[in-house]
Structure formats: structure tokens, C-alpha cells
Amino acid sequence: MYTVEDLALALSQYLPYEQIAKVKRAYYYAEQAHDGQRRKSGEPYVTHPLAVAEILSELRMDCDGLTAALLHDVIEDTGISREALTEQFGEGVAGLVDGVSKLTHLEFNNQIEKQAHNFQKMAMAMADDIRVILVKLADRLHNMRTLDAMPAHKKRRIARETLDIYAPIANRLGMYKVRVDLESLAFQAYYPMRARMLQKAIHKKYGQQRIKDTQKLEDTIRSELAADYIEASISVREKHIYSIYQKMDKKRRSLDEIMDVMGVRIVTDRHDSCYRILGVIHALFKPIEGRFKDYIAVPKSNGYQSLHTTVLGTNGIPMEVQIRTEEMDLVANNGIAAHWAYKVSGTSSMPSNHDRATKWVKSLLEIQQKARNPVEFVDNVKNDLFPDEVYVFTPNGQIIELPSGATPVDFAYGVHTEIGNTCISCRINRRLAPLSTQLESGQTVEIITAKNAQPNVAWLSFAITGKARTNIRHYLKDKQRENAISIGHRLLTRSLNAFKTNVEELTAEQIAQVLANHQLESMDDLLESIGKGRHVGYLVARELFPNIDEESLVTPKSFKVNGSEGMLISYAKCCAPIPGDPIVGYVQVDKGIIIHHLNCPNVQDHLSNPERFIHMAWGKEIEEELHISLIVTYINERGAVAKIASSISDTDFQVSNLDIIERGRVSRLRLSITISSRVGLADVMRRIKAVRCVEKVSRETIVGR
């Protein structure tokens, strides 16, 4: 059994005696605090924090980090307070322990919310001290190693959480060894049968003669490097099982189609030797086109540096070759934890991945501040934990790192929040492109902005980075409140007009009474609630003037629509009203005002709530772009559809969809277009009718059915 003396012996290789003494004192303090407590396996509880400290000692963690590892469950599982820890071990250690501790005294609606709160607290503590996540990762790793003692349902929950959150964080921080261990253990716990079957298939395919082939491959490469006077260590490995499973699952490929199940790692002493070794490898084996990546020139976002190339081995099986220096290898395996190894040894050249990781953790603060709740925060952070990156350039040559699948909107927010908020279009390699385009490494992206532009809710369908999604949601949330207050003011004013008064003439006592009735804090909160349909303007007006007789009320004026009201006024898809149609509004909870054609059959469904209906009228100049569908009946001759489409191709109207709904000698198609006026609709219909094969054009609507 591993003991505190074993830990002290390991620490003596890089820590001074007085610091080792502090770590040992923390162990005895934890042993006493956890006295009588046992793990599910039956072992004394203190064996767990000791194992966590052992994992961190292998990463050469500093004294305070090791002390916190030994004490990390003291606040959560014993009666000892943070103040007591501060008195004994200092504020730094107490802060680390508190950052790792779970939220044990709050009530949550469900397990997802609980996990979200825990992760949010941990992330905020990470922003103050990155060692919090290192202790937590070591804690999770030991828990995964001893997961067999847990009941089956808890095994699956912990394994899923590890795959979703902790392994990606380890990857984001460049901690390869920890990530691989977490993924492998979690995969075996969550998919035990798949893990066994895949391991068996790998052994069957690559197990025969593997040892002999591996030794032969190493000898061949070593002799070629020696001939060029290059010193290097060579290791041949099998890609870890979860990585193989992910490639098979995501890309829907069989094991035979996975390119790099076998891998060779070559570690040398000098930077320039990496490129010389690459030349030797490409002379020995045939490189596979498109499978070379230079992460030395352009490091990954977690600081990882290496040359990657995939070649055909002697047996015709593809293998990935990684080439790096000893320093790069240390950073590749330990990631941000390598920072403390360098710090303790006194080496002056600190790995840059510490700065990169710190920058990423700081960005969590911005996401947290603008997220509506912890669940949304965790959801956005997950989007930032992609293992693959693309590297694109700004027009002045600066490299921006983004997750695979990122779009120009993600790029814009990656450069600066204000650029993201005001972008209207982009150029990729000097050519205009849609904002939804998925970016590829090496492209140059230029964002075009406009002073009065603002984020679009449609961006949420393709923006993937946490920073972009959080800022879009934050802006839209603020804008929605602003719109809701404006609409709520108009609706309440309209209702008060029936009482021959307006909002400005209300007394403080009247307002205070209504706010108290609905448990609201301010007039803006009340107006927002009315604008969002949670409260009805007419009913609020009745509360303000309860003693006025219904017969004395005057009919309020129609609510004018001009198209600039924002996202809380929308048009019913069932009847698709356009300027000139008679319309009526229905106030729907949390959706605002839905505008229907006055004769729409669906309006009848809402008659049980007449107070939610509003007389509506079109403003003189409607600014809104409206989506309608036209049904075109035509003779099905050669090129007919192309002629119909081209008839409006030279106009400003956008065709969003063209769908043939009936085929035959006489066919019908549905043409979805965007217009801004009734005049525009008439122009489009006139152009289509002018096509020789067209027999009839009509606007699709359920009105009158």
C-alpha cells in the first residue's frame, strides 16, 4: 500500500525538506479529519487524497498544490471550516481546497443542475488559480481507477460526466496522459461491451506478430537516423482505444478504415532535428497525401507542439509518426502541469501553454458573466472543449485559433466582442462568403462591420464557440427586454386610453399596488411582462381602475405595426399576413404578439381568451421583410421550373425554397420568397404569370378554407 513516506520519497527528488514537511503535516491533518470514514471499497478514506497527491507528484506539482490535494475533501466531508484551514495552512491552500469542494448545502432541481453549479464554481476558482483544475482532474482520475466499488447507475453517470467534461478539459490543458487515462477508464465503464469487443478486434487485426514487427520497425528507423548522425528515442504504440472508437463512431468507419491505429513517436534533442527526421521518415515510407500537420510552426491552442505525418508502414498498414523535442514531449504529456515542473527546477524557458491555458480560463469568466444560468454556462463551455482546431488568419497576419466547425461569426467574436456584435458580412480569402461558412485552416478572414448592426438570433444555429454563443444570447436577452418594455408600454397605454388616461398619469400608489399584486420590483418589470404576454394590458388597466364601469370605457385605437418593433412581434405562419391584409394580434405568453389574418381559422382557437386579442393595423411604411409562399400551376414542359425561377432572379426578392408538390402534365410548385410590400408581391406574381408555361399563380394561405 502506498504510504505518506513513499510520497515524501518521491517529492524529495524536486522539493526542499521544509516543503515536504508541510505536505506530510497536511496528510496527518487529513488523516485525523477523515478518521472513521471509509470509501465504498472499504479502505480508510485518507487513502484517496493520498492517491490524488501521488498523481500530482508525478506531474511535479508544487507544495501548495500537493497540500490542497491532501485536504481537498476536508471542507466537504468533515466539520472543518475554510477558516480553520486558512489558520493552519494559509489562505492560498484554503482557497484551492474551497475551489475543488462541491456545493453540498444547496438544493437543486436535478442532477444536471447540480453538476452545472459544481462546475461553475470550480471554473470560477480556476480563474483565480489554475491549480484547482489540476487537483480536480487528479481527484477524478483516482475516482475512475476505483470506480468498480460504485453501484452500476453511479458508474455510468460518473463515466458520462468524465467523457463530457473532465477528459475534454484535460485535453484543453494539454494533459495527454491524464486525458487518455480518463477516457479509457470512462469508456470501459460506460460502454463495457463495446470496449471489450473493440479491444478484441484490434488484437485480432494487429496482434499477430506485433512484437516482432514493432521491434523491426524501431530498428529500421533507428539505423536510418544513426546514419544521418541524429540522436533520438523511438517508441511504437497503439492508439488508445477510446480515440479509435471516437473515429469509428463520428466518421461512421470500420476498424479497417481507421488510418492511424499504430503510431510511432520520435523524441529528439533539438528543434531543427525534427524537420531532418521528417525527411528521413518520408524517404523510408510513403507519406499519405493530406496527412501532414506542422504543430511546431503553429501550436495547438493548448500549447501542444509536434510534427505529425501518416505513412504506409512496411506491412502496408497506415501509421502516424509524431516528431518532437524532449521539451515538447514533456509539454505534450503533462500540458499545463509542465509549468510547475519547470518552475520547481528553475528553468527560465517556461512553456507557452501555461499562458494559453490561463487565457482560456480567463475567457470562462466572460462566458459566466453573460450566461443566464449554470446549465447554459456549462453548455457553452462544452462547445469550447473541441479536440480539433482550425487556424485562420486576420488580414494583418495574426493567427486565430478556433474549434473545428467554427464560422466567421466565431472568428469575429474571437477577435473582439464588439466586432462580433457589429459584423454584417465577411470575406474569406478576399471573396464575399456567408457568415455560416465553416472555416478551414490557412484561410484569411476579414470581417465587415457596420456601426448600427447587431447580432442575429439565426447566428445561434451555426456559431459554436462558447464566447460567440454567450455574447449573442446576452445581447439578444438585453435587446428582448428593451423590446418587451417598449411593446408593453404601447399595450398598456392603448388599454389605459379606454380609461381616458395614460401611463404617465398613473399615481405612485396605483403602480405600487399593482407591482405588489404581481410580486414585481419596478414599472419596467411590469411593462416587460406585458410585452412578453405574461400579463395582459387590459387586465392590468382594470386593476389600476377597479371602480370604473365597463360601459363608460371607450374603444382603444388599433395597434399600428411598422416592422421595427423587434423580436416580440411575429407573423403567423399559418396565414402569412402581408401589408394590406386585415389583421388581428394575439398576445401569447413569452412570445409576444402573434399577428394573424383577421379571417384565419386558427384565430378561432383563441376565442376563449378574448382579452388577449388586439385590433391591429399596418403602419404607412412597413420595414419588416415578410416570408410568403406562392403556388404556381404550370404546364410541365422541358425547362419549365428553370424559366419560372429565372423570371424573378434579376429582382431584389429572395427565393428561400422551391418545392414541386404535384407532378403531371399540369404540375404545381411551391415558391417561398421574402417580400417587403404588397406592391413587391404583385410585381413578383406579374413576372411569374408572364412565363409562357404558367397557368396560375396564387398566394398560399389557409385563410378561407
**DSSP summary: helix tally:** 27
Uncertain segments are 103-108, 347-351
Beta-strand portion reads: 15-25%
From the helix content, strand content and strand pairing, which structural class follows?
alpha+beta
Q: Could you give me the name of the CATH homologous superfamily of the largest domain?
A: Hypothetical protein af1432
Number of domains: 6
> How would you name the oligomeric state of the polypeptide chains in this document?
single chain
CATH class of the largest domain: Mainly Alpha
Radius of gyration: 33 Å
| Shape summary | globular
Main β-sheet: number of strands, strand sense, barrel status? 6 strands, mixed
Domain ACT: 629-702
Pathway: Purine metabolism; ppGpp biosynthesis; ppGpp from GDP: step 1/1
GO molecular function, one term: guanosine-3',5'-bis(diphosphate) 3'-diphosphatase activity
Keywords: Hydrolase
Descriptive account of the structure:
Its EC number is 3.1.7.2. Residues 629-702 form the ACT domain. With 705 residues, the chain is an alpha+beta fold. The model is unreliable at 103-108 and 347-351 (pLDDT under 50). The chain is 47% helix and 16% strand. It is built from 27 helices and 20 strands. It has six domains: 4-175, Hypothetical protein af1432 (Orthogonal Bundle), CATH 1.10.3210; 199-334, Beta Polymerase, domain 2 (2-Layer Sandwich); 354-466, Ubiquitin-like (UB roll) (Roll), CATH 3.10.20.30; 475-544, no CATH class; 559-617, no CATH class; 626-699, 2-Layer Sandwich (Alpha-Beta Plaits).
